[in-house]
Write a sequence for this structure.
């Protein structure tokens, strides 16, 4: 007998008895009846569960060929770039596949090769990489606990908790300090965006800096709130002892907390926790201790699905990422509970009532845990920077860095303009910088109706803003756009 590797799920197939061939052979009807028992065997287990794999109307074997062709092509269009950059690198397919085939490895390898060949479109990941650089400069903070000169532990909340739920960080950090001796604080990015973008050069330098900073604090144990950060540290910083906040909290008396919903919630495991059974179990234990009733989603635990952020899917293909989030939130009509700040944020964007487990452990006074709206890219950046300032003042009595002159500008925008800026990933700080420069230099186009257009090229991208000055440092923003193309005077190259 031949041992086939082809897997076909027959759990829903009712067996049909064979129709034996008569000695003279089948007639047409008999042959059809026997042939109709054929299952048309095919696997597609990964495709059935992954919105990304369904998007391109194929299956991994075909995608592998397309990706190979895309990398090998010397001249002509590389039509699979977007497909390669749209996988969320969540690893669900590999965990589901009876043969362990990994689209994550395939797509990540392809991205690295595109970077090596200098063929990665900058638009795919620039914004995320810029965000990471900001998190590791003005958005970073590394301190021993107030009044201490050594750390046994460092609490590492991760960029998305700091940006999406900044009000949680201080009470959570204070809670840890009260119960564990010598817990410092470390705000920065773990480097995952560089890895997902295929930028091993940036990832390696971020890792090097991270390890140096950790060593400078006396090599303490790192407590991460984000399973994505924990995954990076466990894979790429083996010398760092890293533990999950959830396994730490599980072994402590929990803080006095607010009411929890009487109805069960559907628990979503982030894809970065798929290979962390200890963390998933700790979360379920904490939920039980809080009296939270849970329902498991169809794909849960090690088979859990991504929210649409992983692998920078949202940066490369926002419509697909929206469909991924929409599919996930439709799996259960109940309110959702998760323990990843980015999953919570994107499910809120998809219109699903979703709470973060920390919202019940450290509720903000007067706020409903489900009412936190989607935090867009601009707000996340602003909140991260504001958090650094607030913690420096409240915990370490330090003076904040002086505000830059453009930061005092007040932007007035209606919802449609806010949505446009979010869609085009034009952050408010860039708009303020542009307006400040336009006023300072007078380099703006007066349209004669009280409105102006001005531009700024802070790096490789040129930004344009239509605006109306309202006086007293206030500006109504009417529209904004950006491009990488350089427009030169007289058609000459600069
Ligand atoms: S890694 Fe995730 S998004 Fe990519 S193909 Fe596999 S399951 Fe789909
Ligand atoms: S990659 Fe694996 S799970 Fe997907 S269709 Fe092929 S054998 Fe099945």
């Amino acid at each position: 007998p031949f041992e086939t590797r082809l897997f076909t799920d027959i759990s829903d197939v009712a067996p049909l008895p064979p129709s034996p061939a008569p000695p003279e052979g089948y007639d047409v009807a008999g042959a059809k009846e026997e042939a109709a028992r054929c299952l048309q065997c095919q696997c597609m287990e990964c495709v059935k569960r992954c919105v990304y794999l369904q998007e391109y109307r194929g299956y991994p074997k075909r995608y592998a060929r397309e990706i190979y062709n895309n990398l090998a092509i010397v001249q002509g269009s590389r039509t699979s770039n977007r497909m390669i950059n749209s996988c969320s690198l969540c690893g669900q397919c590999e965990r589901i596949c009876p043969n362990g085939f990994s689209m994550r490895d395939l797509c990540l390898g392809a991205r690295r090769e595109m970077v090596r060949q200098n063929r990665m479109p900058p638009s795919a990941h620039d914004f995320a990489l810029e965000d990471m650089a900001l998190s590791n400069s003005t958005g970073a903070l590394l301190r021993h606990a107030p009044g201490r000169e050594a750390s046994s532990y460092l609490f590492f909340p991760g960029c998305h908790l700091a940006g999406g739920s900044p009000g949680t960080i201080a009470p959570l950090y204070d809670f840890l300090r009260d119960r564990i001796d010598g817990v410092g604080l470390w705000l920065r990015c773990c480097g995952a965006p560089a890895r997902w973008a295929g930028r091993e050069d940036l990832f390696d330098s971020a890792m090097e800096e991270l390890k140096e900073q950790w060593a400078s604090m006396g090599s303490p144990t790192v407590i991460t709130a984000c399973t994505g950060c924990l995954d990076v540290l466990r894979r790429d910083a083996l010398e760092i002892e890293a533990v999950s906040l959830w396994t730490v909290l599980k072994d402590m008396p929990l803080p006095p907390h607010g009411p929890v919903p009487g109805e069960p919630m559907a628990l979503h495991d982030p894809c970065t926790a798929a290979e962390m059974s200890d963390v998933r179990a700790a979360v379920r234990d904490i939920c039980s201790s809080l009296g939270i009733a849970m329902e498991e989603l169809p794909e849960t635990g090690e088979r859990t699905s991504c929210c649409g952020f992983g692998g920078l899917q949202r940066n490369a293909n926002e419509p697909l990422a929206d469909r991924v989030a929409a599919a996930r939130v439709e799996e259960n009509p109940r309110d959702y509970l998760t323990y990843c700040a980015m999953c919570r944020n994107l499910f809120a964007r998809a219109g699903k009532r979703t709470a973060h487990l920390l919202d019940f452990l450290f509720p903000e006074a007067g706020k409903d845990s489900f009412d936190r709206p989607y935090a867009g890219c601009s707000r996340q950046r602003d909140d991260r920077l504001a958090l650094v300032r607030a913690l420096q003042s409240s915990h370490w009595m330090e003076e904040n860095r002086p505000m830059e002159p453009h930061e005092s500008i007040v932007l007035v925008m209606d919802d449609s303009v806010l949505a446009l800026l979010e869609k085009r990933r034009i952050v408010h700080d860039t708009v303020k910088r542009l307006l400040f420069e336009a006023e300072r230099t007078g380099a703006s186009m007066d349209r004669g109706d009280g409105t102006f257009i001005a531009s700024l090229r802070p790096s490789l991208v040129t930004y344009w803003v239509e605006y109306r000055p309202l006086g007293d440092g206030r500006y109504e923003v009417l529209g904004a756009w950006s491009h990488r193309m350089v427009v030169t005077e007289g058609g000459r190259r600069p």
In short: The two ends are 70 Å apart (CA to CA). The chain has three domains: 1-121, 128-395, 405-491. The CA atoms of residues 55 and 320 lie 8 Å apart.
